[in-house]
Amino acid sequence: PQPLYNDPQMFRADMEEIFQKEWLFVGMTCEVPARGDYITVEIGQNPVLIVRDGDGGIQAFHNVCRHRGSKLCTEHRGKVANLVCPYHQWTYDLKGNLLFAGTEMGDAFDIKAHGLKPAHCRTAGGFIFISLAKGEAPELEPFMATLDEYMEPYDMENTKVAVESTILEDANWKLVIENNRECYHCSGSHPELLNTLLEWDDTNDPRASEEFLAHYANQAKEWDAEGIPHKHVEHGLRNRVVRMPLKEGTDVMTLDGQQGCAKLMGRIKNPKMGSMRILHLPNSWNHMQSDHAVVFRVLPISAQKTMVTTKWLVHKDAVEGVDYDVARLRQVWDATNEQDRCLAEENQRGINSIGYQPGPYSETFEFGVINFIDWYSETVRNNLKKDSL
Prior knowledge:
By secondary structure, the chain is α+β, with helices and mostly antiparallel strands.
């Protein structure tokens, strides 16, 4: 129905029942490699700070000073010895404890009661997830275990972000996700992507041909020989990991299908790793390849505006201009992101019309969209029930 995609009240419900309660992908552990390194992210009106502490752990805090509420870290990323509020210089350590508030607060002031408010934070396989849930966060353990197993060959702690892009799409965040969850539109919209990508969603895709399944079986033998996990694993409708082969004769998702970076990732020796696809609802899809990874993060801005951030990661020792060329590395997904932006925005414009009436989904071509809408609807309903208890 139309309000699901353009009504400000529905958007408020999305933020309160999904983005303020569920686990969200926010970044990669390699982005905060050492003590005091931090990144920041905005979840609606909630600024969040992710920082590597002195013990090597990764912490997440509401990026809000406990004095007057000013944002602590105003940059997208940086490095600090301690966290100092720019307003009145209240100072916190990297575990969120308040160290200094000046002598002006009076003798009754309890410094231990004014530490930063934490957010739930978990890491696995190089990915950082946070939840703003009050009290207990939803279960994430099974997916974390799968990520650790499937990401082990990549050694993501020893990677780096080669380049990133952020685009604003004038479309509801659910339209952005729905567009990603099907390739019904690919043949008419993504020529660069289809140079290498096989559009089957996974080995269980009802459209999968015998030729594709034979191609998968041949690739799987090579992956098994190298101890590379590849079988389809899913945790409900929210999380899925599967390794899929690319078109025969291609290695990675560059325009010509050949390596984008001379250094392979982690312990990988075979450039033909295909693309390991990782889905995490509500806000991320990812492609892990032999020489580079591409990770995507979706964050809602308003009922009809969404931020999509894409990061390309390579081996930390890879040298730009020698081992990889940034323009070549990002070429395919820059084109695909722009094409998807146009599709989502035109979708939004049509939905806004008084002439819009929802049509039926294709159970074969759009089963991923059906799965997403089912997950979304069930999650919102369940969280609303919890609110009422």
